[in-house]
Amino acid sequence: MTRIPTALDAARRIADGSLTCEALARACLDRIAEREPAVQAWQHLDPDRVLEAARLNDRSASGPLKGLPVGVKDLIDTGDMPTTYGSAIYANHRPARDAACVALARRAGALILGKTVTTEFAYFQPGKTRNPHDPGRTPGGSSSGSAAAVADGMVPLAFATQTAGSVVRPASFCGVAGYKPSFGLIDRTGVRPFADSLDTVGVLAATVEDAAFFASVLTGRPNLRVADEAVRPRIGLCRTHEWHAATPAAQTVIEEAARRLRAAGFDLREVALPEGWRGLFEAQKTVMAYECARTFAPETQANPDRLGARLRDLIETGWAVAPEAYDDAKSLAAEARSGFADVLGDLDVLLTPSAPGEAPEGLDATGDPVFSRVWTLLGAPSVNVPGLTGPSGQPVGVQAVGRPGDDRRVLVASAAVARALAGA
Amino acid sequence: MTRIPTALDAARRIADGSLTCEALARACLDRIAEREPAVQAWQHLDPDRVLEAARLNDRSASGPLKGLPVGVKDLIDTGDMPTTYGSAIYANHRPARDAACVALARRAGALILGKTVTTEFAYFQPGKTRNPHDPGRTPGGSSSGSAAAVADGMVPLAFATQTAGSVVRPASFCGVAGYKPSFGLIDRTGVRPFADSLDTVGVLAATVEDAAFFASVLTGRPNLRVADEAVRPRIGLCRTHEWHAATPAAQTVIEEAARRLRAAGFDLREVALPEGWRGLFEAQKTVMAYECARTFAPETQANPDRLGARLRDLIETGWAVAPEAYDDAKSLAAEARSGFADVLGDLDVLLTPSAPGEAPEGLDATGDPVFSRVWTLLGAPSVNVPGLTGPSGQPVGVQAVGRPGDDRRVLVASAAVARALAGA
């Protein structure tokens, strides 16, 4: 098989006429035809309509994403494709419109390839997708299909969302770049809500540069685009208060990453998070459960029996949270957010595990978002940087995290880390 | 006509069996039948289905809102009624589900009476509704129908939303209590977005106590319920940086309110807002335009010609805002939010105008949200306290504002202010 080009390569070649949108779409569809039976990344895909749209793009699209195929997590509305939110309740749902992020991608010329599998409402009940590196392992969740499709070379770019760890974890398990922006950076209109103060739209791509490019276009922020900046970011090696959850594989990978970064001449220091931050992990769970219970009030009333058991449990947990406990959790988060700059000091980013280790074996669970919950609660930009592998040869990413609003710095640092890990 | 009871009265009487849900619904429908031709508050109302639902409530509903009729702003999804968002684009839209706030109301036994008129997507293009106190004047917007229906005694409770001033302004113009909670207090799932970091669900009722009761049930926060607390809140009389926009009518009303509150023995002090807050007004406009442009990307692409001229203008303005200007506006807001407690000091609430004066004459505009923009940006709870009138005999409210998260204090203070204004 011919590998599909990176998004940046494809954009250059489409712009200079050496690649057509149709040929790129065909390359994606060929790869999908070959691999989808094993990977099962797609919830909805109509090859004929894709090719028709690609030819239309060749004739009339313009914009920096012209003809670039994008996979859309099926938690995100599309006006011309079904949208199930991974739920039996919405099996036949057809939204009236695109979500804003999808419209912004189309506005820039992108080709919406199809819908990728999500877990049920982006919670823990897995869909059908398998890890392309090992079909017996989970791709992670909830952006399972987007991560698997990008990892398998089926599509150069994909949308994902994160409420706990649904961008960074599947990116780590599948070995792709995953960028969860600062809270609110990409508009959420038309994205199925789960927990209003946590839900964040993110992107997945083969490389950090591609993810940054995609996000820079979507947000109209050219400075998010990352070139080959010759920077050596100041990095805080941060074991976090959840280090106990890191398997030996994840611990070894972080040590290996530190070794390679030091060898490349990076300034790397150990950073301990404040004791007062120890409660943030539980605070995220409290906020998520409380908000989820209210968000799902309509489905709980109309179709309680068609909600998965894990989600029903969380809803029940959420109703049991006292409003005062919720308020305390939000206050703790607000305090930590405003103290974030002090914790980093003169460091550019923190480097932490992305996930507890390699993708777990089995398809009945999607792994643990333990290393992302806190950063999502704080609205901090974070990136899964791929490049290393664990003892079983499976991908294991490391996570770069920065101050809320400091997305450019995190992307630049992540790209530099990726190059250093690759020995470039 | 027999006036419908307040929500609290009706709840008591339904609980003790002296009023049936059906009789209450009939009283609302009778009033609507009589007055709707003049007021035009309703976008959708099906009396037969309402009575059927009321009888069902009598038989099987339980909960603190049992049988209480609620008007739902037509910006908010209902699974059993059309939902137009006040837009030609969505004229035939039927959502699959209720919004979360509607489901929460039903869960507590409420009777969803019908959909009330909103301006186009809750922006400035008016609907058909007239001010019940003077059919030649606007009811205000964007929660036009909800405010008019409550003011006219058609329904005891209604949902509203606020992005700039759409709860407080129509409440002031129509002479009802309007409560815009702290940002995020009532779940927004299923409410048509306009600007993600501003949109807030609020409530309207005849009295502050009714509004507080409704919100306390919706949020599961019993402490928001306001009884006849014998408190004399410490009040900061605050002319704000937008005082120049207050007409003589509004200025006189604030002075009259201050006179009555002092006469009732309240501690009232003049408070000047920090100079650094002067930019917050423009910051709100910047954030609203920027986010609106992105939120409406789908409609802008699919149906630009079916968007009203004022909204198209705002979208264009939003695209012209540089991301750095947006970031600066958000930073200024975050700074002011964290300094809010210091500005209030030992005061319980600020008292400011709700709107520039009486409802303007004419129906081609809905008035100016000038006195609400800043509080919405800061996510601060605010209440329109009705009770006074202007030189033309039209209602003019005053606005109580408190610290973000301090909703109980604002509601208790607002109820006390209302009693003092009424000379009680």
User: Biggest interface pair, residues each?
Assistant: A-B, 39 and 39 residues
In the CATH hierarchy, what is the class of the domain at 7-224 in chain A? Alpha Beta
Structural class of chain A: alpha/beta
Roughly how many Å apart are the termini of chain A? 26 Å
Under CATH, the topology of the domain at 7-224 in chain A can be stated as Amidase signature (AS) enzymes
Task: Please mark out the parts of chain A with pLDDT under 50 across 5 or more consecutive residues, or reply none.
Answer: none
| Strand order in the largest sheet of chain A | 1-3-2-4-6-5-10-11-9-7-8
Question: Brief description of this entry?
Answer:
Chain A is built from 15 helices and eleven strands. The first copy, chain A, has 424 residues and is α/β, with parallel strands linked by helices.
Keywords:
Amidase signature (AS) enzymes; 15 helices; alpha/beta; homodimer; 424 residues; 11 strands
Folded structure, characterized:
The structure is a homodimer of 424-residue chains. The first copy, chain A, has 15 helices and eleven strands. With 424 residues, chain A is of the alpha/beta class. The radius of gyration of chain A is 20 Å and the shape is globular. The longest helix of chain A has 19 residues, at 21-39. In chain A, β2, α4 and β3 form a beta-alpha-beta unit. The two termini of chain A are 26 Å apart. Chain A has helices at 7-15, 21-39, 47-60, 100-107, 144-151, 168-174, 208-219, 248-263, 280-295, 297-302, 309-320, 323-338, 340-344, 373-377, 407-421; strands at residues 42-45, 69-73, 111-116, 157-162, 177-180, 200-205, 234-238, 267-271, 349-353, 382-389, 395-401. Chain A has a domain at 7-224: Amidase signature (AS) domain (Amidase signature (AS) enzymes), CATH 3.90.1300.10. An eleven-stranded mixed beta sheet of chain A has the order 1-3-2-4-6-5-10-11-9-7-8, sandwiched between helices. In chain A, α5 packs parallel to α6 (168-174), α9 (280-295) crosses α11 (309-320) and α9 crosses α12 (323-338). In chain A, 40% of the residues lie in helices and 14% in strands. The interface between A and B is large, with 39 and 39 residues.
